[in-house]
Protein: Acetylglutamate kinase
Organism: Nannocystis pusilla
Amino acid sequence: MPNPRELIVKLLRNLGGRKEVEQYLKQFSSVEHKRFAVIKVGGGLLADDLESLASSLNFLHQVGLHPVVVHGVGPQLQAAFEAAGIDPTDWAQRTSPRALEQVRRVFRTENLRLVDMLEEMGARGRPVVGGVFAAELDDDDRGKEQRARIVRVDTDAIDSSLKAGSMPVLASIGETAGGQILDLGPDLAAHALAVRLQPYKIVLLRAKGGLRDEYGDLLSAVNLAEDYEPLLAEPWMTSSTRHKLELIHDLLGKLPRASSVSITSPDLLAMELFTHKGSGTLVRRGERIILHESLQSVDLPRLAGLLAAAFGRPPVADYFTRKPFRRIYLADSYRAAAILTDEGPIPYLDKFAVTGEAQGEGIGGSLWLRMTRETPKLFWRARVDNPINPWYFQRADGSYTGGAWTVFWTGITDFPTIQECVERALAAPPTLEAAHTIGDAA
């Protein structure tokens, strides 16, 4: 069996740099096993994408990470009810002994299918089909539709599994005090499980991957402190996506600030967890982006420290007195900043600085959205070998490369203005002490 280092090297060949992967592996490995991650799996993935799902979970197991997996059986149970002639909308039929036997059988079968696949791949999985979720029925819903409420989460089976080095695979099945079993659904079960375990990561796996906007573009990061209300107000937001965000907002409010929710597909799970770029939608409680109209309200030593950390070099000595500052967007933590200056009729993005840690948290994306929402016309430059340029190209409406620099712009359409912006950007003197490095828009 390959050792974790060999697996990491294999991953690097496909996903990204060693530094990124090892940074995340170190973070995850420092977390207590049962608090690493809760991974929610819908029944549709078990039916249609079992091998990819098991492969991704196996990778985590092989590098020494043991998530707690909770799954549903929606499509499979629906098919079983139809085959048995049971109407799931009829309360009496759905709670009959014949129906409950179908629930037990389907959950057991699907749970073991995943565990067996994990075992075939070399991972150690342990089936847990009961004994975790104590639930009760809401009296108001009797005679209408089955509604369950989880009143307690018992972790003995989870603790035992993790101590043995196995990955617990939980069925989203609850039991009442009277012994009745309830199909809780994976969303409700994962939510209650996360509140109980307080994990570092919650991963919602779905075939479609991350959330997408009105154009079908991936919402790579959501900073709830900044983005939650604006997103809910978007006319293109579907009711299901709005509901999902509301549930995530509620969940993260009950977890440590460091916790986050990732929404991705099984085949891209490793990329989502181990690279800054990710592969799906990363949702965090986040932090506020503060707009400063002048330098007077800015902690200049902290801002200078941020620039030095992001670019590997400090700003020139007279930077804060030389530049005609227009707006400065700063994260509360001073881990991300966008500095706009007046270099003509169009605002110039003189610096866009994000620390490596903040890149992994999606703060840069939230900062960019806030800045461009309030300042839609911008231009900026970056060294041609800047590793952040692909990110800039995705967000710019146009670009021009001349010599050592690439000039980008957004919101500008007429050629004379574009030409003026390009000339101003190329002629601007350096504002860092030495050669620019990571993420420099200077």
The chain has two domains: 4-284, 289-427. The CA atoms of residues 292 and 328 lie 5 Å apart. The mean pLDDT is 88.
